[in-house]
Design a protein that fits this description.
Layout: H1 3-34, H2 38-52, E1 59-62, E2 68-72, H3 87-97, H4 109-120, H5 131-144, H6 149-156, H7 160-174, H8 179-189, H9 199-207, H10 216-225, H11 238-254, H12 260-267, H13 289-305, H14 310-315, E3 319-322, H15 326-339, E4 348-354, E5 363-368, H16 400-409, E6 418-420, E7 424-431, E8 439-441, E9 444-450, E10 460-462, H17 463-469, H18 472-482, H19 484-494, H20 497-501, H21 516-519, H22 522-526, H23 547-558, E11 562-563, E12 569-573, E13 588-589, H24 593-602, H25 614-618, E14 627-632, E15 639-644, E16 649-655, H26 687-699, H27 713-716
Parallel strand pairs: 1-3
Antiparallel strand pairs: 1-2, 3-12, 4-5, 4-16, 6-10, 7-9, 8-9, 11-13, 14-15, 15-16
Helix pairs in contact: 1-4, 1-7, 2-7, 3-10, 3-11, 5-6, 5-7, 5-8, 10-11, 11-12, 15-26, 16-18, 16-19
Length: about 725
């Protein structure tokens, strides 16, 4: 280096020193009431920004009784107060990071000037930041600008401007905060790698202890990590971590916070971290486990639908008390996987349970035979099988309840009126049948169908008996008489809101799709259109459906015709214990109470002799009043059972969840094979009904057996 260059650098350093002193001291004067220029205003704004943006905390998800089922977070942090942090931890940090911490006022002038000279003359790059300055920087990086790469880069760039701003804020903070507050704040915000932030979380994750109980060796390891948490991770880099820990111990000895002989002894100790990685909870619904994960996932989906962001949920430090009944959820899970093995290839058996009610509709259980998880080799999935629209092939004849309700509302038939039940029916209203159906126009066949093979019905049966024994022809004839508009509208009213708004692939209608069935909603597809009365196959339940919404249909009927939106939330409180309101749709009286009560009576015979669910009911010696309806799709591709008592309504569905072509080209995939003793042929009265009865028998054990509501004569028979 030429002498002239060295002289110029020396002059520059003198100027730099003057700038630092003048710039940093200015807010001290401002604190006395004379700040008025733009620079000082920027400092004030930045300081308030630090105060106004709270650090991310862990959100707790609990069951209805307050038992935690999951932790949701971006940063694993356990807030700790000063008296909850051991002195060993504090002195380890001060010794290695800022030995004059208790002497300066936010900026260590000696260290700052020394670092400036070293950096400007080409020596080793030095930071010389005090703990207060590091607190500012870490708060910006880990809190204010988390997720903002540009902001994070600016908060740690090696520039005089950045250091000046950081120093000014540090001094301003120390006019407002005591030293212990600064030290505690820093120890709560700093990163320790692997999504672990703050000493409270680090103590638990690294040593399975509390910050108060941290020893010298443990505190020294953590204090050493803040310099470079990734490279000093004790599991990935144990030698580097130990070397750094021992350097911290040496500094504690040098600063007279530890006796030399104790320091030498402690340096010989092993790292002592928990084996096989940090001890911290999963950061997503995976932490809820294979049994409760589906409910947790539904809670997340529900809150996002209500306008909350994932960032709000995962960083708010909230307590989300859900409506989940852990006992009910457990019994539902056991029943589902008893009926269909969890690892059976491409078969889902789901059960969704809700509470009837005219003011709310609490969801209490959401399960599947499959475990919630990320390992498909073990049959796991993170898709919301019990709540979402994942049954692509439908719920079969359970949809006949919509036709029955619409027929009653339209004055077509009362519950005790007789309806035709021919073995075969050729519609003179609907078209779109197979080539085997009569040709009614060029290229157009009538819609024709028959009852299940082996079924033997008299020419006419009451509507109640039709619901119990489920002849296909009776309900297509009722569709013709009631009209498809009222039938599909009834499905939406009673509970299939999202289902009927989705397309035939279970997703949002796509106006740009080449497939016409995907361009419109199910309500539009099956309902009447110009020059078309609609699709008569709707009553046979051939389209995608949500199990949770199907359960809610049963709850609406049991609630006197009052529909309420399914709700998994009892309350949410923020980190300060204040409630967070969630706006929900109001409950609606969607059909007359008399109609709903009469429908309940009409559906009350399915579990009795002659009913399609009788066999499943007798296996658990069922003796409670209830409503029920089974359903099986063509070729036994899927099956369902909807059932309800006055206390709980639920829907069980068995279906194939994996459809590579969106579910449209794979209908009629063959028998769904249940566990023994079934012979492999799937019907709604078998595995789905057994799943429902198996769970409900245990959940309601010891509970009262309230009667069903009485039928309204207005809907018993039509004049």
């Amino acid at each position: 280096m030429r002498k002239s260059d060295g002289l110029l650098k020396l002059v520059g350093l003198c100027l730099l020193a003057g700038v630092l002193v003048a710039g940093v001291l200015f807010p001290v004067v401002g604190a006395a009431g004379v700040i008025s220029n733009q620079a000082s205003q920027t400092v004030d704004e930045m300081s308030s920004e630090l105060a106004d943006v709270p650090p991310p905390l862990v959100t707790r998800v609990t069951d209805r009784d307050g038992n935690q089922i999951a932790s949701l977070y971006k940063q694993y942090r356990i807030p700790t107060t000063s008296d909850q942090i051991s002195d060993a931890m504090k002195w380890a940090l001060v010794s290695i990071e800022d030995k004059r911490f208790y002497e300066h006022h936010g900026v260590d002038w000696k260290g700052t000037l020394r670092a400036a000279i070293s950096n400007q003359t080409g020596g080793d790059t030095q930071g010389a930041s005090t703990i207060t300055q590091q607190y500012v920087k870490n708060y910006l990086i880990n809190v204010v600008y988390r997720g903002d790469e540009v902001g994070q880069e600016k908060a740690q760039e090696q520039s005089i401007a950045r250091k000046l701003k950081e120093a000014r804020i540090a001094i301003q903070l120390e006019t407002k905060m005591a030293k212990e507050q600064v030290l505690t704040g820093y120890l709560n915000v700093v990163e320790f790698s692997r999504q672990i932030f703050g000493v409270g979380a680090a103590a638990h994750a690294y040593f399975d202890t509390t910050a108060k109980e941290l020893t010298v060796a443990q505190g020294a390891l953590l204090a050493g990590m803040v310099n470079n948490p990734g490279q000093l991770d004790p599991w990935n880099h144990p030698e580097a971590a130990k070397e750094r820990r021992n350097r911290v111990i040496d500094k504690m000895v040098e600063n007279r916070k530890l006796a030399p002989e104790d320091g030498e002894r402690i340096k010989g100790e092993p790292l002592g971290v928990v084996p096989e990685g940090p001890n911290k909870p999963a950061s997503t619904c995976i932490g809820a486990g294979p049994e409760n994960g589906f409910f947790c996932q539904y809670v997340l989906d529900y809150l996002k639908e209500k306008g909350l962001t994932e960032d709000q949920i995962f960083t708010g430090g909230w307590t989300i008390r859900t409506s989940m009944d852990q006992e009910a959820n457990h019994e539902a899970k056991m029943s589902a996987q008893t009926q269909v093995k969890k690892d059976q290839e491409n078969v889902a058996n789901t059960l969704s349970l809700v509470k009837p009610g005219k003011d709310s509709r609490e969801v209490i259980a959401l399960v599947a035979n499959r475990d919630y998880g990320t390992d498909p080799e073990q049959g796991q999935t993170v898709y919301g099988l019990p709540s979402g629209i994942y049954n692509m092939t439908g719920a079969g004849s359970s949809f006949k309840m919509f036709t029955a309700a619409a027929a009653m509302k339209q004055g077509v038939a009362g519950i005790y009126d007789e309806v035709p039940s021919p073995s075969r029916h050729v519609s003179n209203v609907f078209v779109g049948g197979a080539d085997t159906c009569p040709l009614v126009a060029r290229g157009t066949h009538a819609y024709c169908l028959g009852n299940n093979e082996g079924s033997d019905f008299p020419p006419e049966i009451t509507l109640q008996t039709a619901l119990q024994r489920s002849p296909n022809t009776s309900f297509v004839i009722l569709e013709e008489r009631a009209g498809m508009g009222p039938v599909v509208d009834m499905a939406s009213k009673l509970g299939l809101r999202n289902t009927m708004a989705s397309n035939l692939a279970g997703g949002k209608p796509d106006p740009k799709s080449d497939n016409g069935a995907l361009r419109v909603s199910q309500k539009q597809f099956f309902g009447p259109k110009e020059n078309s009365p609609g699709q008569g196959s709707f009553t046979l339940g051939v389209s995608p459906v949500s199990g949770l919404e199907l359960a809610n249909v049963g709850a609406t009927i049991m609630s006197g015709g009052v529909w309420c939106p399914p709700n998994p939330i009892l309350e949410i409180t923020d980190r300060g214990g204040e409630p967070i309101p969630i706006k929900t749709e109001p409950c609606e009286q969607v059909v007359e109470e008399g109609l709903a009560n009469t429908m309940a009576v009409g559906m009350s015979k399915d579990h009795e002799p002659g009913g399609t669910a009788h066999r499943a009911a007798t296996e658990v010696d069922w003796d409670r009043p209830m409503i029920g309806k089974t359903g099986t799709t063509q070729n036994n591709g899927s099956a369902a059972f909807v059932g309800a008592t006055p206390q709980i309504a639920g829907a069980a569905m068995v279906f194939r969840p994996d459809f590579p072509n969106g579910g449209l080209q794979d209908r009629g995939v063959g028998n769904v094979v249940a566990v023994p003793p079934d012979d492999g042929t799937m019907f709604g009265g078998r595995t789905p009904a057994r799943t429902w009865f198996g769970a409900m028998d245990k959940i309601l054990e010891g509970e009262p057996k309230p009667p069903l509501p009485k039928a309204d004569p207005k809907y018993e028979r039509m004049d």
